[in-house]
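Support reply, case 0932

Customer input (verbatim):
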Amino acid sequence: MATIYRKSAKGQSEIETRSHRLSPRLRSALIMIDGRRSDDDLRRLMPQQCDESLQLLLEQGFVEVLGIAQQAPAARPMNVAAPARPAAPVSQPQPLETPSMPPRDFAATRAQAVRLFTDMVGPMAEALAMKMERARTPDELRPLVQTAQGIIGNTRGRQAAADYGTRVPL
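Our regenerated output:
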């Protein structure tokens, strides 16, 4: 089993302000901790003194344990045939169809679409989020939301894109 760490408030503060003046090795380790990578992943990224760095960051309160992850299943030997499984189609956002909505509902939906998109994608979402904010009708917003779904699918996976689509009722 692998341990997953995330930055604590103190760790976030250190990234933003450098107020604790961490050594370059510890700062690099802190930057790589994102709440998704396990300690095994981090060992591959920084093979030198990874365990010691993680332990120091944990002891000093810069990171905290988020959880324990299951190990990935072992790879099959090359000579064993994998069970046949159909290729997954490339995920394209499904068209969103609904009748027109009242202006107040549209404004709330647009705000939710932008907020969820920026939360899921981060700073890369800025240009499209600004276009979404300028949309004045559901017909203007719909293709932008579909584009956002595609971007989310590429960065976070099909399930995250599907979740976004269901949470933005257009």
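We compared this against your earlier run and they match. Two observations from our side: Residues 103-121 form the longest helix (19 residues). The chain has two domains: 2-69, 103-167. Please reopen the case if you see a mismatch on your end.
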